[in-house]
Amino acid sequence: MTAITNGLPRDRMLSEPRDLDLRGKSGSRALKNSVATAVMWAAFAIAVIPLVWILLTVAVKGGHLILDSTWWTNSQQGITARREGGGAVHAIQGTLIQGLVTALISVPIGVLTAVYLVEYGRGRFARIVSFMVDILTGVPSIVAGLFIYAVFITTFGFTRAGIFVCLSLTLLMIPVVVRSTEEMLKLVPNELREAAYALGVPKWKTIFSVVLPTAFSGIITGVLLGLARVMGETAPLLILGPYTKAIATDLFGGNMATLPTMINQDRDQAVTLPAYDRIWAAALTLILLILLLNLLGRLAGRFSKV
Amino acid sequence: MKNTRGARFAALAAIGGLALAGCGSDNNTATTTTGTAGSASSSSAAGSSESAPATDCPSGTLNAEGSSAQKNAFEEVVTAYNEKCADLTINYNPTGSGTGIKQFNAGQVDFAGSDSALKTEEKDGVIEVDAAQKRCESPAWNLPMVIGPIAVAYNLDGVDKLVLDAPTLAAIFQGEITTWNDPKIAALNSGVTLPDTAIKPFFRSDESGTTENFTKYLKAAGGDAWAGEPAKSWTGKGEGKEKSSGVADAVKATAGGITYVELSYAKDNALGMAQIDNGSGAVELTSDSIGKFIATAAADGEGNDLRLKLDYATKEAGAYPIGLVTYEIVCSVNKDAAKQNEIKSFLTFFASSEAQSLIEEIGYAPLPAEVQTKVAAAVAALS
């Protein structure tokens, strides 16, 4: 019995009821079924509980601050841990600027690498490139930060600045962009390429005006998701991007605030102080920012019907 | 069509980001203040403004890094300084004393804050004093600027006054005394009814100058009672919590809890603070009593290098013997004259009575008059 019904599609089982004994599930099967169901739901709940918990805690503790308009218009300049007020605009700006510059550096490199891997790469060199991208994917963010620190600060003697944060974030973002773009380019039907070739279009032009445009929204999705990942990154910022309470937009000199470093700056304060609430609000702002990017990524993805 | 829609989203995101990045204000003058610190700071700032030394106001940016113990004092002073001189932006990153010195010696920051003076002996292949000299091309000076009293904070219902001494504290933090009504504690607290609650010591699980200074005290004043060596990481018993806020929270939430923590955290969490018997009677932790302790310190440096050798075993009447000194570490001669002028302007204010009384309000202690005069002279000698 069990042996026969196992592995059969459900509709087929239902379509030949007369041959089967359908007096209800046997005891052991019913038990297995309910155990499996219970385990599944429990696993789901375990996965969701911390998520909801974190979101609720952050929203409850930091929500009231971000509803205040000064949060979005003012910096923390002149605000000590014991004073209320001020905003996070310096940190939001820093996070956005660094994210944007990181994207500007990593997107061309990442997309072109993916084009090479999908369209041109054959043989050993392509395999090596692909392997290197895999390795880069596994590099912990702290290593990326320390690498840039060792090269630019220790060896070349620069002082820490926002641009070095961008460079280390680039190391983290490139593999994400390469992988997602690669997947998108692979999805482009070969018939499109063949049709272009049949019309006598050269290969570079085919890639440029047929393959890339077809995969465009998918690539955008990948880029936005990659950006969302690096914008929440903390380790390289702690090493390379010292915090400031003032608005600073110069990537090439001086301290620059970001949301993660803003959180780090005051996390050691007593819970009774206003600074403590601001940590939660900064965390909530960061979550919202990344949520927004993810939503944009999904939205762009909906137009990707390759 | 699909593509242009995708592009439109990308453009929208970029424009939105830039629009948000385009505006924003650093002007936070009309802010409300909470607690004693804010109101006291404004009144003392107004009251003693004529006594403050005249500072010229350079414009620029100073970056400092180091001790987290002085962070709140530093921020308070920076805010007060910026009320006079708004054009000098001063950033402080509380990454810890060791990191601060490393960044200073690597030329990453303009000056460092550290809970211990630059070390003269080799550690990890580096002699800090020499590395600093190399960075500055002149001797680096340790200027004591902030005194951070360390409170022995406890949570014991119905006990408002508790006296402890070094051997007892050593025994408590090594797990040798386990209940609050132990005869050793009772002997120091005649007339106080001690409950039989279990003692739950909490320590800093992260490396900390507070731990180092507390264990220095236990070692110096407790004699053989403390078995370990003074160090930044804890060698005694108890439960570890991260950072000052961690131990303060733990004591607040635990009946029978005890820990060592900076005064401001004990105050902010409304914890009980033990009086310390230094051999000539119980001493309450006040800015006066911690000042007496710092005043007993011997000068350990030459000329304007004002490193202090704290006498933890002091028996001076009325001196509270547990505290730490945060130094600002600066180049005595700076290649960048404009930068040195900025440092000088800010540190002159930091060493003034006005700034020192400001930080007293938030749980630090002002420099004793004698030390303050020396620091002011040293700052004036920076070039």
Features:
heterodimer, A: 306 residues, mainly alpha, MetI-like fold, 73% helix, globular, disordered N terminus, B: 383 residues, alpha/beta, D-Maltodextrin-Binding Protein, domain 2, 2 domains, nine-stranded mixed beta sheet, three-stranded mixed beta sheet, 14 helices, 14 strands, 40% helix
Largest protein-protein interface: A-B, 60 and 56 residues
| C-alpha end-to-end distance of chain B | 66 Å
Oligomer: heterodimer
Label the overall shape of chain B.
globular
Q: How many domains would you count in the coordinates of chain B?
A: 2
How would you portray this structure in words?
The complex is a heterodimer of chains A (about 300) and B (about 375). In chain A, about 75% of the residues lie in helices and about 0% in strands. Chain A is built from 13 helices and no strands. Chain A has helices at about 1-5, 10-15, 25-65, 70-75, 90-120, 125-135, 140-155, 160-185, 190-200, 205-230, 235-240, 260-265, 275-300. In chain A, helix 9 packs antiparallel against helix 10. Chain B folds into 2 domains: about 5-150 and about 300-310 and about 325-380, D-Maltodextrin-Binding Protein, domain 2 (3-Layer(aba) Sandwich); about 150-295, D-Maltodextrin-Binding Protein, domain 2. Helices cover about 40% and strands about 20% of the residues of chain B. In chain B, strands 1, 2, 3, 4, 6, 7, 8, 9 and 14 form a 9-stranded mixed sheet that branches. In chain B, helix 3 packs across helix 13.
In short:
The complex is a heterodimer of chains A (306) and B (383). Chain A has 306 residues and is mainly alpha-helical. Chain A has two domains: 13-64; 70-302, MetI-like (MetI-like fold, Orthogonal Bundle), CATH 1.10.3720.10.
List the helices and strands and how they pair.
The complex is a heterodimer of chains A (306) and B (383).
Chain A: H1 2-5, H2 10-15, H3 27-66, H4 69-73, H5 89-120, H6 123-137, H7 141-155, H8 162-187, H9 190-198, H10 203-231, H11 235-240, H12 259-266, H13 274-302
Chain B: H1 2-22, H2 35-47, E1 60-66, H3 71-84, E2 88-93, H4 97-105, E3 111-114, H5 128-136, E4 140-154, E5 163-165, H6 166-173, H7 183-188, E6 200-204, H8 209-222, E7 239-241, H9 243-253, E8 257-262, H10 263-268, E9 272-273, E10 275-277, E11 282-283, H11 287-295, E12 298-299, E13 308-309, E14 323-331, H12 337-350, H13 353-360, H14 369-380
Parallel strand pairs in B: 1-2, 1-3, 5-10, 6-7, 6-8
Antiparallel strand pairs in B: 3-14, 4-8, 4-9, 4-14, 10-11, 12-13
